[in-house]
């Protein structure tokens, strides 16, 4: 899973080529877990900041505030970078199932578009030898 995640980030600006179904979904899982960890840590620190805000531990409150804001900034840049990586890995996955990159815009259609895009991402790789 970690290898798939790192490979996706390494190929963040590569829109040609192919990505396997396994690598795509492992990247999605690792991204979700990392985002969840960052959010839990940020919320925990903000709650600790407010817990110590009115007590005699105002220095501790300030420390929690600084760390919480730092994690918030890291989360912002992670989400921004993950958007670009998500686009590139989705385009490569579409290439792997022999669909044009423009199919990524199917997600614009509310609800049904996203469901169909997930369906596309679950399709097996196209090897070119199968008969349709």
Report on the structure:
- It contains four helices and no strands.
- By secondary structure, the chain is mostly helical.
- The radius of gyration is 20 Å and the shape is elongated.
- The two termini are 33 Å apart.
Topology:
Blueprint: H1 2-10, H2 21-51, H3 58-96, H4 112-121
Helix pairs in contact: 1-2, 2-3
Keyphrases for this structure?
mainly alpha; 132 residues
Brief synopsis:
The protein is built from 4 helices and no strands.
Describe the sheet with the most strands. none
**Residue-averaged pLDDT, rounded?**
88
Low-confidence stretches: none
Number of alpha- plus pi-helical segments: 4
